[in-house]
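Colleagues,

For the teaching module next term, I've prepared a clean inverse folding example: a structure given as tokens, and then the sequence designed for it. I'd like students to try predicting residues themselves before seeing the answer, so please don't circulate the second half yet.
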């Protein structure tokens, strides 16, 4: 077991559907001195799990981080079949059509769930999980080993829409929509989980000046991210009225690491709608009684982030390009 001391970097397992904003989250975690990225698992969402692993390996190689294991996770959600992803948002290859040479390394032989369980033993009592895709791998890992939560410090998940509208249906956010059954199992597992919903991720953005700063960087990963954002900005133009994008996944990464802090994050009962009706995929957060200030519900293990201490954009670009260091 690796005992964790406070000044040692935090071991983090990242579960992702790599993805343009997933790539930003990966780059951010790699740029943080406080983080020891010990593994990456992939899942189908923005693109399929195998392509997400290909993208993750290629990005890690660009960053010179050939030490981080990448495992392919679930192709299909717990109930049903993968729907083919969202090339209109993330491009045909998940990274905006940007061509990056395939890594020399191959994915691990184990599945993402197996990698997570293995890492939870290696880093027992220290491992943090960051999820920025559908929660299928976590649900599978919990089914394979129900003791998993006892070895995990914290889970931070981008997903859901508490008071904001959804982005797939009126009420459902994509990561939850893609596997509501897995989300319900993960959110009810009893581990300390911080949900980073659309309420805050849609309010954090990158704009053309940020993209140019990435393109101007000497760092090859930063430049690749700047290229990918061209596609992502096109998708978000009708939403924001200017070329820019939301920062879903990097915000979850930054909150997990403490680069951005939640200033309103009540612990409340949450429930995922797994019905076949119009509410399917909604994360129902019981936010009653919060008007006079934050009130945590006794026994609730899920915190829902509703406000943060600062915007992520400049900090994210600074960290990735090396222009600033994380505090
Ligand atoms: C989430 O869905 C995916 O498209 C993004 O990568 C992000 O994880 C936003 O709803
Ligand atoms: Ca994602």
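(Answer key — instructors only)
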């Amino acid at each position: 077991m690796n005992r964790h001391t406070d000044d040692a970097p935090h071991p983090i397992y990242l579960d992702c559907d790599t993805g343009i904003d997933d790539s930003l989250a990966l780059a951010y975690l790699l740029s943080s001195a406080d983080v020891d990225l010990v593994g990456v698992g992939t899942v189908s969402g923005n693109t399929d799990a195998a392509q997400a692993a290909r993208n993750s390996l290629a990005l890690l190689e660009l960053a010179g981080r050939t030490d981080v294991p990448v495992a392919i996770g679930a192709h299909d959600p717990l109930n049903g079949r993968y729907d083919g992803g969202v090339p209109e948002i993330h491009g045909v290859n998940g990274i905006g059509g940007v061509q990056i040479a395939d890594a020399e390394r191959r994915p691990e032989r184990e599945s993402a769930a197996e990698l997570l369980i293995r890492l939870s033993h290696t880093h027992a009592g220290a491992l943090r999980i960051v999820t920025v895709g559908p929660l299928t791998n976590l649900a599978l890992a919990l089914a394979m080993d129900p003791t998993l939560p006892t070895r995990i410090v914290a889970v931070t998940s981008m997903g859901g829409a508490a008071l904001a509208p959804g982005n797939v249906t009126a009420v459902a956010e994509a990561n939850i929509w893609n596997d509501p059954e897995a989300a319900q199992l993960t959110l009810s597992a009893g581990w300390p989980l911080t949900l980073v919903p659309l309420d805050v991720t849609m309010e954090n953005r990158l704009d053309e000046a940020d993209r140019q700063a990435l393109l101007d960087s000497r760092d090859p990963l930063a430049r690749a991210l700047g290229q990918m954002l061209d596609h992502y900005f096109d998708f978000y133009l009708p939403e924001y009225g200017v070329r820019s994008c939301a920062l879903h996944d990097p915000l979850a990464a930054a909150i997990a690491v403490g680069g951005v802090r939640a200033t309103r994050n009540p612990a409340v009962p949450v429930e995922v709608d797994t019905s076949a009706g119009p509410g399917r995929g909604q994360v129902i957060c019981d936010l009653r009684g919060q008007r006079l200030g934050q009130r945590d519900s006794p026994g609730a293990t899920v915190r829902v982030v509703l406000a943060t201490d600062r915007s992520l954009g400049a900090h994210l670009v600074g960290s990735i390009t090396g222009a600033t260091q994380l505090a």
